[in-house]
Amino acid sequence: MNIGLLGTGTVGGGVIQMAGQTADLRIVKALTLDKPEGILTNDFADIASDGSIDTVAEAMGGISPAYEYARASLEAGRNFITSNKLLVSAKGAELDALARKKGVAFLFGAACGGGIPYLESLSVARESYPLDRVGGILNGTTNFMLFNMESRALSYDQALAMAQELGYAERDPSSDVLGLDTARKIVLAIAVGFGFDVRPQDVPTFGISTVTPEDIKAARSTGRALKLCARASFREGVLEARVNPVFCAPQNPEGAVSRNFNMAWFDGPQCGRIALYGQGAGRFPTASNMIRDLRSIQAGKLHMLPETLKQAQPDQNGRSRLWYVRTDAGKQEIRATVGEIHRRFATVPGAFFAEIEEEE
Ligand SMILES: NC(=O)c1ccc[n+]([C@@H]2O[C@H](COP(=O)([O-])OP(=O)(O)OC[C@H]3O[C@@H](n4cnc5c(N)ncnc54)[C@H](OP(=O)(O)O)[C@@H]3O)[C@@H](O)[C@H]2O)c1
Fold first, then answer.
1. Which of 263, 247, 237 is nearest to 134 (CA)?
2. What's the 84 CA to ligand 1 centre distance in angstroms?
3. Of 12, 194, 219, 265, which residue is 20 to 30 A from 151 by alpha carbon distance?
4. By alpha-carbon position, which residue is closest to atom 34 of ligand 1?
């Protein structure tokens, strides 16, 4: 396989190293902002015009120019794989349709779950048996912070500083701590698992930016661990989705996910719950997932998304759930739909809420 690589940073650098250890995955050219030498180029035209390249692997991040390069690559009849959740959550349906028109691959295994082969497994599951729920702990940064707030009794600011020092959190951590990164990922799982094209901003999302040690203790006092979780279901014709902190029920393995690990799962009436656990980020875990996509293409798997995707907005007013709510006025437990809880508390300064998981 002759590959044009876009981006030579954390993930792209890992792809170069791992492909270099194989006999047949050849990086022909790699687009970089660094000094152009050897296979490195600063000009996408060098990749677009190289007739030997059959597959383009993108690990630059951002929508533009990744989107334009994706379209150009697919238009030219090249397979396209990416680790870029921002790109796929915004443009995945369109890029997959173009790939189908051209008879080439569009795969994005590393865009949700980092090193965990979750989307690949989910797509095979969807082709094999009915699925009605997807979800998990999909953001390693926030899990690392919550884990250390609990296990080392750190404050939010101390946990964030530690995550930044270790390179788990960016200087501007807002997309992680506000849950936006998780929302982009659950949207990919909804698309692959249920065939719905949902905008991340339509998923009710509440992060951990207002969490305090008091909230962690409140979870612990009920024998539960506080985690930032994504959940989506498609049952009886109704699509629901949400990203919010959860007091995980004692029997739920998500409660035991430590440090910066992730757990991604799917569920169906026949298969039951299948959970995958591993590194949700990092150079080699994420590069491993991109290498898997390349191997999948060689094995003849060209798509993760179903052939038709239906645009949808998750219902926010279905099932009532039990919530822990803390505001200036104190702590309370209330029963509410996800829509109600957001309307009442999501914009109250300093307020925090978490779902208290009950047996389904
Ligand atoms: N890191 C992870 O653990 C991880 C996990 C899962 C998914 N991902 C996804 O993988 C993608 C890459 O992440 P990363 O962590 O590898 O980011 P990164 O370290 O910042 O690497 C991105 C690379 O792309 C280069 N780049 C950006 N725009 C470019 C352009 N227009 N032309 C040429 N090169 C360009 C950057 O150059 P400069 O350095 O000069 O800016 C950088 O070297 C993102 O979509 C991210 O969400 C990352």
1. 263
2. 9
3. 265
4. 32
pTM: 0.97
Residues with CB under 6 A from ligand 1: 7-12, 31-33, 59-61, 65, 83-85, 110, 114, 281-282, 286
Atom index in ligand 1 nearest the CA of residue 282 equals 3
Nearest to 324 by CA among 215, 212, 206: 215
The pLDDT tens digits of the residues spanning 333-357 come to 999 999 999 999 999 999 999 999 9
Is 119 part of any domain? no
- 191, 309 in Cβ contact below 8 A? yes
Enclosing domain of residue 239: 129-280+312-356
Whether 359 shows a pLDDT value over 90: the answer reads: no
What average pLDDT does the segment 187-198 reach?
A: 98
**Which atom from ligand 1 is nearest to the alpha carbon of 62?**
45
CB 118 within 8 A of CB 279: no
Q: If you measure from the C-alpha of residue 8 to the centroid of ligand 1, how many angstroms do you get, rounded to a whole number?
A: 7
Give yes or no for a contact between 44 and 65, defined as CB atoms under 8 angstroms apart.
yes
The answer on 251 and 176 residing in a single domain is: yes
Active site residues: 185
Best residue among 286, 291, 293 to mutate for probing ligand 1's pocket (most ligand atoms within 8 Å of CB) is: 286
Q: Is pLDDT of 360 > 70?
A: no
In degrees rounded to 5, what are phi and psi of residue 308? -120, 135
What's 14's domain CATH number?
3.40.50.720
- Say if residue 318 is in the same domain as residue 201: yes
CA distance 133 to 259: 25
268 and 225 in one domain? yes
- In the reported structure, the alpha carbon of residue 117 is separated from the centroid of ligand 1 by a whole-number distance in angstroms of 20
Kindly state whether residues 215 and 333 are assigned to the same domain: yes
Q: Are residues 38 and 164 in the same domain?
A: no
Is the pLDDT at 259 greater than 80, yes or no? yes
Q: What was the pLDDT predicted at 124? A: 98
Total domains in the fold of the chain: 2
